[in-house]
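Record filed below.
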Amino acid sequence: MPLNRRQWFAAATAASVGLITVRAAQPAAVVAPDAQRSLRDLRITAIRVTPIALPDPPILAASGAHGPYFLRNVIELETNAGITGIGETRGGESITKTLNAARSWLVGESPFAYRTFPARLGREALSAYAGLELACLDLIGRATGRRVCELLGGPVRERVEFASYLFYRYAADHPTVLADKALADDRGRGDRALDQWGDVRTPEAMAEMAWQFKKKWGFRFHKLKAGVLPPDVELETLRAMNARFGGKEPLRIDPNARWTVPTALRIGEQLKSLPLDYYEDPVEGQAAMGEVRQKTGLKLSTNMCVTRFEHIPDAVRLKPVDIVLVDHHSFGGIPACQAIGDLSPSLGWSLSQHSNNHGGITMAAMITVGAVIPQLTYASDTHYVWLPEGADIIVGGNLPIKDGMMNVPAGPGLGVELDRGKLAIAHERYVKSGMRSRNDADLMRRLEPGWQRKPF
């Protein structure tokens, strides 16, 4: 029997209650054909922005050491139909303020009009926009009973491959780490440590951890986050990893532009004896990257020198890379990453995905990005393995990784549901920690007094 407008709103409201409760997730109701015509009247009635802090181990990069938490902003868009869409984006107080300020014009807008939002947010608010766009796409998917990947043209693959993301690190229960004034949970020593990976700051320890990552998650590609130890030690680390894998697994190295051109050229020549998948951002800037690429003949990749559309003209001229690691937070949403995919064949590029610390909503979004871009043929990065099991803010456990692959979630929208209890805990942790922005140098200088980000 056809539903009238009032009945449809009531049914949609009742269905949406199960989407965001702490109870086990219920499948979202598919809107009846007659009711779908009312989607043109769908309007945003409220936005909720929840800044959160999720636990992070002391992993190391060229920027320093990760503190006890990483920050994210969770977005909920409510509608006059009682359906709520969810998004997640980068953390930090400035993005929280940008999202909250959007309330003044966002209420009353159609979620279908998300492509009009960037002009009202400003050019420097791409991360905030990416979170809003994601919430709109999730909302539209829930309202229509479709997955986000189907709204964006359909998946070209249902399983998306990810690489192991291997960081040098201190033990999670290192005394300096546990003495951090921002710590706002009950982690401790031994069995109470955040994780059991221990101290990994030698080639042998990294090779063993890489092997354990493969056993646990089945990764086939392995990326070393470099720019931490002396370059020759990091080269030896890759060699130790290669020996552990019997020379059969593709390797990547990412010094985060901490090396000089002479260092990158010298190490690059040595990398030719290894099964190198790509050489990521060894040096800073497109001109230096172009020089290393031309002189070594290696495949270079970036998530640093081509991160926005305005970087493309110089990249055409300087030819710094073969592979671009897209990130929907930097480029301005998932359709923007699809546009990079459309351009990439004419630019001679292949694609992968960049990652920063994130929760399950962004993980679902990254799987979606990998599913809808045919040109994204290199296994993507993800920090998700560093988020302790059960620490995510979605209903159920962390999304599974098997054989290095993640399945596109089956439910409508992004296919994941907020666990409101876990969200509340993560927000309380944010408040108590006092952290409002990322500062990797702070912990690093306490672990290694006098540390500076000097080039190698």
Observations:
- The domain at 159-417 is CATH 3.20.20.120 (TIM Barrel).
- The CA atoms of residues 262 and 376 lie 31 Å apart.
